[in-house]
Amino acid sequence: MFLFCLIVMETVRKNKVFLIDTLSTDASVVLQHVQSDSIITRRDYNNLNQPNHTQEKIIINLLDTVMNRGDETCQKFLKLLEKKELQENFPQLKKLFTPDQTSAERERGPDMPHVKKQSKGAEFVDRHRDTLIQRISSVMEIADRLLTKNMISTEMYSTVSAAATPQHKMRTLYGFLNSGAVKEEVYQILREKQPYLMKDLEG
C-alpha cells in the first residue's frame, strides 16, 4: 500500500509540466471538476480562483495543493483525469490518463517530441532531488535568489520560509520549480554556494 501511494504521488509530480500545459487552456473548468469531486474545498476554490492569476498560475497552485494533501488526494485527482467528461474538454489527457494505463506508462510520461531537452542543470536538479532535499540546509539562500530574479512569488517564498525544517523547506521549494529555467538557476546557485556538495554529486 505504501509503495502504491508513492507511485501515485510520483505520477502527479513527474507529469506536472504536461498537466500545466494541458489544463491551463481552461482553468475554470478544472476547478469546477475538482470541487465537484471533493478534491478541494470551497475555500480552496476561492483561494485558487483569483482574478489576477493567469490560467497557468491557477493550475500550478492547484497541483501544489493536491500534492501537499498527500496520496489519497492525488489518487482522487488521477481518477478525475481519467473521466470522460474532463477528457472531452482536454483531449490531450487521453495520451496518459486512461483507466487501463499502467503506472509505468504514466511514470514515463506522454510522448511529446516538441518539448526541448532539459539543460544539464535542470536534469541535475531533477536527478538528485532526494539527495538535495536531505543535504541542503541553507534553503532560504536559494529562495532569496529566486525571489530576487522573480522566479518565485512572494507567496511561494513565504510558504517555503514557513516550513519547519530544512528538508521540509527544500521539498516545498521543489514544488515551485516549474520550469527548466528555474531549475537551471537553482543549479547555478548550488554551484556557487555549495561547491563541496556539488563536487560530491557530480563526481
Automatic annotation (TrEMBL):
Region ranges (Disordered): 99-121
InterPro entries: CARD, CARD8/ASC/NALP1_CARD, DEATH-like_dom_sf, NLRP_Inflammasome
Residue stretches of biased makeup (Basic and acidic residues): 103-114
Localisation: Cytoplasm, Cytosol
Boundaries of every CARD domain copy: 4-83, 117-177
Pfam families: CARD
Name of this chain's protein: Uncharacterized protein LOC108278075 isoform X1
Organism whose genome encodes this protein: Ictalurus punctatus (Channel catfish)
Source organism phylogeny: Eukaryota, Metazoa, Chordata, Craniata, Vertebrata
